[in-house]
Amino acid sequence: MIALNYRDSRPIYEQIKDNLRRLILSGGIAPDEKLPSVRELASQLAINPNTIQRAYRELESEGYIYTVAGKGSFAGNLHEIADLRVRELLSQFDALTDRLMGMGQSAETLAQRVRERGGKEK
Predict the structure, then answer these.
(1) Residue 38: closest CA among 10, 67, 11
(2) Which alpha helices (H) appear in the chain, and where do they start and end?
(3) Which residues contact 118 (CB under 8 A, 6 or more apart)?
(4) Which of 66, 80, 101, 114 has a CA 20 to 30 Å removed from the CA of 90?
(5) Domains of the chain: which residue ranges?
(6) What is the distance between the alpha carbons of residues 73 and 69, in angstroms, rounded to a whole number?
(7) Could you give the percent of the chain with pLDDT greater than 90?
């Protein structure tokens, strides 16, 4: 389910977040599916429960999971997550556009760049 790379420069909690985010977005964890408890996952990965708790807390603040008191943590709704991610990326796009225009790039130049990328998918 979750693979950690101890040679990775990223903190362990970020690796856990990335793994869970990927599983949720790919459907590997279904919407509303219960996630392992903090203690259970910490035991499986042989790491401190506080590390898991931090990853869960940040995923919850980002909208990827939700917690029900006394029941545990669950994967969020994929459509809501996708909408949240689109809004987040558009906000970043707006900020980047503002920076580029502040550096002298015209709106037309930026629009042309977007048109050129239209239809190109990774």
Answers:
(1) 67
(2) 12-26, 38-45, 49-61, 78-102, 107-117
(3) none
(4) 66
(5) 12-76, 79-117
(6) 9
(7) 75
Residue 72, strand partner residues? 68
CATH of domain 12-76: 1.10.10.10
44-81 pLDDT, tens digit per residue, is 999 999 999 999 999 999 889 999 999 999 999 877 77
AA letter at 122: K
d(CA 119, CA 12): 36
Total residue length of the chain: 122
The whole-angstrom separation of Cα 71 and Cα 37 is 9
**What's the token pair of residue 51?**
């590390």
pTM: 0.69
Residue 84 is encoded by which pair of tokens?
């949240």
